[in-house]
Description:
Layout: H1 11-23, H2 27-40, H3 46-55, H4 59-71, H5 73-76, H6 80-90
Helix pairs in contact: 1-2, 3-4
Amino acid sequence: MYCDVVEDIGWKDACLLYVAAHTYAIYSLKQKCSMILRESCCLSNVCEIIKHAYNYEDEYLKTFTKQYITGHYREIKEANEWKLLVAAKEN
């Protein structure tokens, strides 16, 4: 049972909780998970996080990840995850 407390979870667990929060319309949990995803965003997970932002219509998370990608584009454009994301978008 969710008691409005999310303590010390990693970004992967935050992704799972984010999906559950969206599915069951627990908006306070979704916001907390979104905050954890923003705080945990790095070169190795930004592609996964931006997919969540688009799949679950999180405008704030979309904006954040776009800004992150813009600021780190030189590194991100070489990552396999980025290439797969771009290829999927083109199809």
